[in-house]
Amino acid sequence: MTGLALLQKHRVDFNILTTVHAANAGYPLEVYRFLRDQVGTQFIQFIPIVERDNQTGFQEGDRVTNRSVTGKQYGNFLIVVFDEWARRDVGRVFVQIFDVALAAWLGEQPGLCIFQKTCGQALAMEHNGDLFSCDHFVEPKHKLGNIQDIPLIDMVASEQQRRFGPAKQETLPRYCRQCNVRFVCNGGCPKNRILHTPDGEPGLNYLCQGYKAFFTRIDQPMRFMANEIRHQRPPANIMAYLARLEAELRRRFAGANRNDPCPCGSGRKFKHCHRRH
Q1: Which residues are catalytic?
Q2: Fewer CB in a 10 Å sphere around the end CB: N or C, the chain?
Q3: Cβ(136)–Cβ(119) below 8 Å
Q4: What Cα–Cα distance (Å) separates residue 65 from each residue in 17, 49, 55, 132?
């Protein structure tokens, strides 16, 4: 916080990278509001911690440590933060995964490698000159060579690296290929594809449940914001739009009896739905 205060004193732009893990996954609003109100940041990334439980430290095995966030937790975290952001902070606070999603709803390619159709453009070089296919796979089987022995361009253009990139799309399970939110998710990062699909096919992303819940939940707000941009209007108009919807719902709730169908359209009785809130 002292270092942050120094940046702010000298008006240096900064971006907060916040990990989401087992300890803070249950506190999305507390985390977001702290970053927004106490830290005063405009730019936030929420990075899920999915840590393999093995002795090598490499991306192998299908178990994760108890520090890892679950897919359900991560999805809920993003949903709660998004609901707050879409009502108060559009155009004022920029959350990376929300920006990436909006690009996808506009028909653009995601600007984040984990959501692109193919990968292989985010290579990693260690201090000793070793080059690896990706910064998520700094391990022996993905080593391309050493810059002291092989020119960088030769390693980047190698057959090994050319195979690495398209493999992300080529190994996507049928369950993912048929998914409604594939256009934005694209199966997520290959390092997290450690589960089996409901029909037993390997290669399902560990965070799939969360991604699917989150991207499904934000579909309508994203459609609204994308439409505003196409008509050269600010996407921040979503805040006024949501405020009008909520005012209308409150009006309808006020006239609902306990046993009436809930005005929210859930299909449940009012007493079992929004009346409880």
Answers
A1: 135
A2: C
A3: no
A4: 21, 10, 11, 25
